[in-house]
Design goal:
Helix content is about 50%, strand content about 15%. The chain is an alpha/beta fold. The N terminus is likely disordered.
């Protein structure tokens, strides 16, 4: 690779280490740097949040570009997709793979302290109960908004108020996408909101033990998505099957852009 090409790519990545790929922003921080960034707890720190754009997010952004500010406004953007990471390799982009469940497990082991106050916004009460049962060493507060809350201004406002006033060190948001990102964005815009939010999708169900992860061999090969499809075909088949065409179009554009 010539120096000119390297400089051009570095310029597109930006001085803050964030790059736009397949229409979504991604940070280039390795997992150790991410974990280190979560250690400081400074009083009065404004609320910040983390997103994990995968193929489903990417194809949605292509259809609904008005959602892009939700991702641009995130403190960190993790690549939680082996597919996206491998497509990045094809154009010479090295995206660190930060699986949401793996990172949260390391946060529990290396960052959190017994007695920490943690907040959850979950789609189902059983997710909250599973987390409380599995991790009783933390103080848990939770909110479960009603189905369709994103289209109900009163219910959405209630969820935002909860997230902005929990006083928790970390807030885990798992109410589906883009609802989770919309909540995090709104909380970040609320005066006085503090803490760090994680839009981590199904990770809470995995770390809570409600769902079983793929065998390590499938994880290592990058086929955890296939395990999820096989275990929840009725819920996930549309996401994976119908996303192939739009993803191929987006990648074709990237091939031209990264020449």
């Amino acid at each position: 690779m010539t120096q000119a090409v390297m400089q051009s790519r570095n310029a597109r990545q930006g001085i803050d280490g964030r790059v736009v790929f397949l229409g979504a922003p991604y940070d280039l921080r390795p997992v150790e740097e991410v974990l280190a960034s979560l250690h400081p707890v400074r009083p009065g720190m404004a609320f910040r949040y983390i997103v994990t754009p995968n193929v489903d997010h990417i194809t949605r952004l292509a259809r609904q570009p008005e959602l892009l500010p939700l991702y641009d406004g995130a403190w960190q953007c993790w690549c939680d997709s082996h597919i996206v990471r491998r497509l990045g390799f094809a154009v010479g982009l090295r995206l660190p793979h930060l699986n949401g469940t793996d990172v949260i497990e390391r946060i529990v082991a290396e960052v959190l302290r017994a007695g920490d106050r943690l907040a959850v916004i979950a789609a189902r009460p059983e997710v909250v109960e599973a987390l409380r049962h599995r991790y009783p060493q933390y103080e848990w507060v939770a909110h479960c908004p009603p189905m369709g809350f994103a289209d109900d201004p009163a219910a959405f406002g209630e969820a935002v108020r909860f997230g902005a006033t929990t006083g928790a060190r970390f807030l885990f948001i798992g109410v589906g996408s883009p609802q989770s990102e919309q909540l995090a964005y709104a909380i970040a815009g609320t005066p006085g909101a503090q803490g760090t939010g994680f839009c981590i999708g199904a990770a809470m169900e995995f770390i809570g033990g409600i769902k079983t992860r793929a065998p390590k061999s499938m994880q290592n090969l990058g086929f955890e998505w296939l395990h999820r499809l096989l275990t929840e075909p009725r819920r996930l088949w549309r996401r994976y099957v119908l996303g192939v065409g739009p993803l191929a179009v987006l990648f074709a554009r990237e091939l031209v852009r990264w020449k």
